Amino acid sequence: MKRIVLFLATNLAVLLVLSIVAHLLGLDTYLAMHGGSMSGLLAFAALFGFGGSFISLLLSKTLAKMSMGVRIIGQSPDPTEQWLVSVVQQHAQRVGVGMPDVGIFNSPQPNAFATGASRNHALVAVSSGLLQGMNRQEIEAVLGHEMTHVANGDMVTLALLQGVVNTFVIFLSRVIGNIIDRAVFRSDDGRGIASFVTVIVLQLVLGILANMIVMWYSRRREFRADRGGAELSGTGNMIAALQELKRVSEPLPSQQFAAFGIADGSAAGGLKRLFMSHPPLDERIAALRALATH
Fold it and tell me: What are the tens digits of pLDDT across the range 150-200?
């Protein structure tokens, strides 16, 4: 959950900075004065939209290390750390990707994540709480889940989807901003300071709402990653790992993050579900059990 929030927050921040720079340099005004067509505006939106998304993707690994205090395991004499690296290496060979960096971060909650700009230059990190709270079979399943994310290129796909979403957010915010500026602020050309402020506000609001699409994709990919973890380490072990996460996370207050971004194991509905990056644990466990019966 944290890495998804970090990616989305970075993406919104990059878009905001790019929009301000474009306005200060007069790029948006220049494009509007030279053709100002919908196709030109769409091209401008796509350039900045995909630019913001891929900048966020390129920064994802570095920001994750910095924000979560990940310590990369090198030539460690610790037998647990050596075992951890060996499991990731085995999974990487089985799914056909390059060996990722393997790290540990301090957190009492069992947690793990994978990130990176490509399948062959990824980072897989686990929390100290996960190492202390799960047995080795369950940890192997969690690592299989994360390595499936890497093998599926989920972060790249997420960036591409975010780029499409960004494009329409930028496009719509400028179209609506222009209309509001003309109708409310009586601007002659729809490019006054009121229009710029309106565009920035609309871009932030639409960007947050558009993240529902990104979250929908994120929830779907979790089911695929669970299946991958089951294939790599056994369905029973993957189910056991999720059950342990459910046991640990359910007593926590809803505002705290549990492993894989789940605050509790109950099914969520309504508006809350639209902004969830991960399905409820009960649904994930049920999906694996259904898979085991076929």
Answer: 999 998 898 888 888 888 888 888 778 777 777 776 665 555 667 778 888
255 confidence band (pLDDT: 50, 70, 90): very low
β-strand partners of 71: 104
Region 69-151: CATH code = 3.30.2010.10
* Nearest CA-CA partner of 73 in 51, 104, 98, 49: 104
β-pairing, 112-116 vs 71-72, is: unpaired
Pair type for strands 122-127 and 101-105: parallel
Tell me whether residue 81 is one of the annotated catalytic residues. no
Tell me how far CA of residue 279 lies from CA of 210, 234, 237, 272, 283, in angstroms. 18, 21, 19, 11, 7
Domain boundaries, the chain: 2-65+154-292, 69-151
Kindly name the residue from 140, 146, 222, 244 that is annotated as catalytic. Answer: 146
